C-alpha cells in the first residue's frame, strides 16, 4: 500500500478554489501525536479544542468544526474511529461524538508501516505540508501539531508525481518589484544579494495559484508571514488591509503593521501586470481574517 499516495489523494470538498484543509490538518495532528506516543488514542472530547485552534489559525476564515474531518477521514483509509460501542464513527454531530466516547487514531496498517519505517512519517508530513500550505507556514504548523520533522529521505521512495513549482518565480517577482517589499518598501541586501525578501503567492500554490508574476508580491519576511496568516491583505484599489483582529500595542507593532492600513501597495515596474483581481479576491475570502481596519485619515 502506497501511503504517500494516500496522503496525496485525500478526498476533500472543493469548489472554485475554496480551501478545505480539515483532513490534512487532522492527519498532521495525528502524525505528531503518533510520533510522541505510538499507542495514543485521540478522544474527540479531549482533542476538540486543539483541532479547533488549528482550524482557526490554519484553516479558512469561515467558522467550521473538527467533527467533520474526525468522522470523514476514515473514508480515506488512513484513520479509524471507535466509540464505547465498538468500531465505527457515530457521525458528525459534536454532541454524539462527545457522548459516545469517540476516539480516533491512525489506521492499523498505517501504524504498522510507520513502526517498520520511521522515515515514512516525515515523508507523509512533507507531502501534506507541500500540497496544502505555503512554505512560510510549515515551521509554525509543525510546532502547532507537535511534529519533530527530520529531513525526508525519498530517494528509494519517490513522492507521488504532482505539479512542480516554477523555480524562476522568485527572481521574476523580486525583479518586477525592484527588490523592495510591496507593503513597507524594505529593500535590504547583503552586497548584491537581497535578504529577507521573498516572493509571496497571493492565491496559494497549493490551491491552484499559478507561478505567474500577477499572482505574486515581493514582501519582506515579516509581511510575508503576516500575509499568509491573514493579518494582512490586499483590497480594492491595491491598498493594504490590516485585520481588526490583530492586536499590537508596542510602537514596533503599530509602525510595522497597523500603520499599513489603507496604504497604497507599491506596484511592480511599468509594463508588468499588478496582482490580478481574481487572486486578490481569493486571498481576501480564503485567508484574510475578520474585517479590515480603516486607513489613516
From TrEMBL:
Entries under InterPro entries matching the protein:
DNA-SBD_ScoMcrA (IPR058813), HNH_nuc (IPR003615), PT_DNA_restrict (IPR011396)
Q: Report a single Gene Ontology molecular function.
A: endonuclease activity
Task: Report the Gene3D superfamilies cross-referenced here.
Answer: 1.10.30.50
ScoMcrA-like DNA sulfur-binding domain mapped to chain residues: 3-148
Keywords, ordered alphabetically: Endonuclease, Hydrolase, Nuclease
The HNH nuclease domain extends over 181-232
Pfam families xref list: DNA-SBD_ScoMcrA, HNH_2
What name does UniProt use for this protein? Restriction endonuclease
Species of origin: Streptomyces phaeolivaceus
Amino acid at each position: 500500500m502506497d501511503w504517500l499516495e494516500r496522503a496525496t489523494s485525500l478526498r476533500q470538498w472543493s469548489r472554485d478554489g475554496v480551501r478545505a484543509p480539515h483532513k490534512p490538518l487532522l492527519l498532521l495532528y495525528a502524525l505528531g501525536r503518533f510520533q510522541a506516543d505510538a499507542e495514543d488514542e485521540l478522544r474527540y472530547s479531549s482533542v476538540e479544542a486543539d483541532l479547533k485552534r488549528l482550524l482557526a489559525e490554519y484553516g479558512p476564515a469561515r467558522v467550521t468544526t473538527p467533527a467533520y474531518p474526525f468522522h470523514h477521514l476514515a473514508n480515506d483509509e488512513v484513520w479509524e474511529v471507535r466509540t464505547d460501542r465498538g468500531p465505527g464513527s457515530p457521525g458528525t454531530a459534536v454532541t454524539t461524538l462527545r457522548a459516545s466516547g469517540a476516539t480516533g487514531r491512525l489506521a492499523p496498517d498505517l501504524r504498522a508501516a510507520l513502526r517498520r519505517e520511521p522515515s515514512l512519517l516525515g515523508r507523509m508530513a512533507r507531502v501534506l505540508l507541500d500540497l496544502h500550505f505555503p512554505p512560510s507556514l510549515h515551521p509554525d504548523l509543525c510546532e502547532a501539531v507537535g511534529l519533530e520533522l527530520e529531513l525526508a529521505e525519498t530517494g528509494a521512495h519517490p513522492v507521488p508525481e504532482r505539479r512542480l513549482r516554477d523555480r524562476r518565480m522568485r527572481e521574476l517577482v523580486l525583479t518586477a518589484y525592484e527588490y523592495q517589499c510591496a507593503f513597507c518598501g524594505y529593500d535590504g541586501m547583503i552586497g548584491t544579494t537581497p535578504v529577507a525578501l521573498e516572493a509571496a503567492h497571493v492565491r496559494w500554490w497549493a490551491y491552484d495559484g499559478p507561478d505567474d508574476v500577477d499572482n505574486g508580491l515581493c514582501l519582506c519576511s515579516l509581511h510575508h508571514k503576516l500575509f499568509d496568516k491573514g493579518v494582512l491583505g490586499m483590497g480594492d484599489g491595491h491598498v493594504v488591509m490590516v485585520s481588526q483582529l490583530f492586536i499590537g500595542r508596542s510602537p514596533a507593532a503599530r509602525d510595522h503593521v497597523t500603520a499599513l492600513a489603507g496604504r497604497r501597495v507599491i506596484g511592480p515596474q511599468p509594463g508588468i501586470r499588478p496582482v490580478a483581481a481574481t487572486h486578490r479576491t481569493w486571498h481576501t475570502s480564503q485567508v484574510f481574517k475578520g474585517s479590515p481596519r480603516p486607513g489613516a485619515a
